[in-house]
Amino acid sequence: MQVTELSAEGLKRQFKIVVPAGDLSAKVDERLAELARTAQMPGFRPGKVPVGLLKKQYGQALYGDALEQAVNQSTAKAIEDRGLKPALQPKVDLKELGEGKDVEFEVAIELLPEIGQLDFSGIELERLKADVPEKDVDDALDRIAKANREQKPVDPPRPAQKGDAIKLDFVGSVDGVEFPGGKAEDYVLELGSGNFIPGFEDQLVGAEIDKPIDVKVTFPAEYGAKELAGKDAVFKCTVKEIREFVDKPADDELAKKNNFENLEAMRKAVSDRIGQDYARISRSMVKRQLLDKLADAYKFAVPDGLVEAEFDSIWRRIEEAKKNGEKFEGDEEKLRKEYRDIAERRVRLGLLLADVGRSNSIDVTPEELNQAVMREAMRYPGQERQVLEFYGKNAELKEQLRAPIFEEKTVDFILELAKVTDKSVTPEELMKAAREAEEAEDAPSEAATN
After folding, report:
1. pLDDT tens per residue, range 212-229
2. Which regions are flagged for Basic and acidic residues bias (predicted)?
């Protein structure tokens, strides 16, 4: 094998590799010899088929296999001998091809950048931290109590009021013709919930049991069923039962109903959950700050191929959003430039975090990966078992959960080295800061990696 370096510019390398015809012939002959030991053909005993006959029948296929093997092995050896670290699969361009001839091909490689020594001790970050006010806990407990309130038939009977739960039958029609999905029996509806078309629930306030009432509404112009969008409709309704809600106090009984020992235990659990929500928001914001600082501090070159692949992924989502009616300001050329800058930033930060993780032996344990699978399963209530089985049978899909865990652990590692100052804020101030950060991220040129 002969290797000649054709060019070396930045992260790009190009080589010409020549594999002697004799090497390929030897590989073909070796495979023919292996085949001859077990080959069967009519008129010949097993293992006694002449090599020449086998070559005539299988030679072309064996040559193709030998060629592919020779290209892969010689490319890998050229890379290994020079200590190169490819960022992408090498691109191979066959120049000379033909049985009995030397194989000549060119290999184009993009390399991973040498990032060098990194020092995070000078990075200064501010982390917003919010305590959980008692009022937030009280409000949450009130919502739990409301969700657990009971219903009872109104006694003595009276017309339906806003806030009541009514059981009704209805049949909807447009221009006197019933439409699919517009009919139901014993449907339970809370008046004032806003679950139905605007105006529907309002017209049922004052309805009485077993007294038919026509509800006239207009479907919104943007209604999901296009055949009904903007159309006037009449629903013939009959209320069969009117029930009112009975409020439940936030007490020990409510706590036990929700699997807590007492109200104090439920109160603590609610406070902890709210605190975790605040902590997630705080963590997200300090991570965004860190990535911004890293992006500004480290400007090493990145492989064009990785940038182009990331840009293509972003742009496909942009095109899909356009098809769904989303508007994007600016002309396409400017927009492509902005999103290519985002792609380059993402690739650079991804390479930097990967380098930090590798050089500091940061890894994802099997337990962490299994916990991630469990979290995915919990996202699909009632289907947890199927999700777990799905991941159990798809190792590659399971491995996709490794990258975000690795990133978070690497970010934690860097945060330990950086100078992070905690600042106490109110929950309102934390939420406002988070909204402002998200609004800034919406601008393409400001977008972060996640």
Report:
1. 999 999 999 888 888 899
2. 426-437
